[in-house]
TrEMBL record:
Forms membrane-associated dynamic filaments that are essential for cell shape determination. Acts by regulating cell wall synthesis and cell elongation, and thus cell shape. A feedback loop between cell geometry and MreB localization may maintain elongated cell shape by targeting cell wall growth to regions of negative cell wall curvature. It is found in: Cytoplasm. It comes from Secundilactobacillus malefermentans. The lineage of its organism: Bacteria, Bacillati, Bacillota, Bacilli, Lactobacillales. GO terms for cellular component: cytoplasm. This is Cell shape-determining protein MreB.
Length: 329
């Protein structure tokens, strides 16, 4: 029997979910290229280890950076490489594949992604909207005539959607999410301390002491290292959670404003359901300390963090494929 595959083609991570097995692959969306020959040298985790550490002839590229496909050919080879790792061609029969790609890709890009998955051994290939699939993966029953609201904060984009009867009723998407937060941290530390840090260090700071909600009792600090912008020498210093909260504030408020705009255009019956059931936070951004408190305070609606925010899109794609399989029988 073919084992259908759900794919989260994310700007930060690619996840593959095999129906009946669960998540079988989870790697960063990074490709290392030899700039002289344009040859792909490494994909995924191996390429990620090279970010910020490459000699001049090697470039570690994030082909889906900022929620758009900035390099389509590389995206295609990355997708094919990951699918080929599952040895799909050796399956007894071809699997169906459901892919979730960034929301704002063009029709040509959509077709090319489907073709790449077909070439890699997919039977039927479906492309689905990310917030819908994330909601399913987070355990929401979106098929009832009831309002469900989800905020999916990924690497490049934050998608906000209200769903009912299996479809999106109101939505919004902003190109600010985890990547932008990393940029904020780099900018803040450079401005305040003249210290230049890399993207990976900024991400590590965000994950370790990052916070979205001011908390007087949070005395967490962290030692960070980088290069002094004036002397050019390596330097280390200690930074606090309160400083990171300050650095991230404006970016997070952009997501809050986008969510307010969705609530403003949500039909009243569905809005009432959302007050009862709460808003589901998903995507890596849902793991940021205090983000639920901030949304609850600003939107005046209960907020729930999904159980495994990083896995929901891939898992949701798998669940939808499973349901399609059942309804065919
Ligand atoms: N504990 C954490 N705290 C804050 N942010 C985190 C945490 N863990 C992961 N992230 C961030 O989550 C982001 C990745 O989330 P996710 O894998 O959901 O994105 P994606 O699906 O690849 O992107 P997109 O939805 O934009 O296509 C990264 O920016 C990462 O830094």
């Amino acid at each position: 029997m073919a084992k259908d595959i759900g794919i989260d083609l994310g700007t930060a991570n690619v996840l593959l979910y095999v129906v009946g097995k669960g998540i079988v692959l989870n790697e960063p969306s990074v490709v290392a290229i030899d700039t002289k020959t344009d040859k792909v040298l490494a994909v995924g985790s191996e390429a990620y280890r090279m970010v910020g550490r490459t000699p001049s002839n090697i470039r570690a590229i994030r082909p889906l950076k900022d929620g758009v496909i900035s390099d389509f050919d590389i995206t295609e080879s990355m997708l094919s490489y990951f699918i080929s790792k599952l040895s799909v061609k050796g399956f007894m029969s071809k699997p169906n594949i459901m892919i979730c790609a960034p929301t704002n890709i063009t029709e040509i890009e959509r077709k090319a992604i489907v073709q790449a998955a077909e070439k890699s051994g997919g039977a039927k290939v479906y492309l689905e909207a990310e917030p819908k699939v994330a909601a399913v993966g987070a355990g929401m029953d979106i098929f009832k005539p009831r309002g469900n609201m989800v905020i999916d904060m990924g690497g490049g984009t934050s998608d906000i959607a209200v769903l009912s009867l299996g479809d999106i009723v109101a939505s919004n998407s902003v190109r600010v999410a985890g990547d932008e937060m990393n940029t904020d941290i780099m900018g803040y530390i450079k401005r305040k301390y003249n210290l230049i840090i890399g993207e990976r260090s900024a991400e590590n700071i965000k994950i370790t002491i990052g916070s979205a909600f001011p908390d007087e009792n949070n005395n967490e600090t962290m030692e960070i290292r980088g290069r002094d912008a004036v002397s050019g020498m390596p330097k280390s210093l200690t930074i606090s959670a309160a400083e990171i909260e300050e650095a991230l504030h404006d970016t997070i408020m952009q997501i809050v404003v986008a969510a307010k705009e969705v609530l403003e255009i949500t039909p009243p019956e569905l809005a009432a359901d959302i007050i009862d059931r709460g808003i589901m936070l998903t995507g890596g951004g849902a793991l940021l300390d205090g983000i639920d408190k901030l949304f609850a305070k600003e939107l005046k609606v209960p907020v729930i963090i999904s159980e495994s925010p990083l896995d929901n899109v891939a898992k949701g794609a798998g669940i939808l494929l499973e349901h399609m399989g059942t309804s065919k029988k």
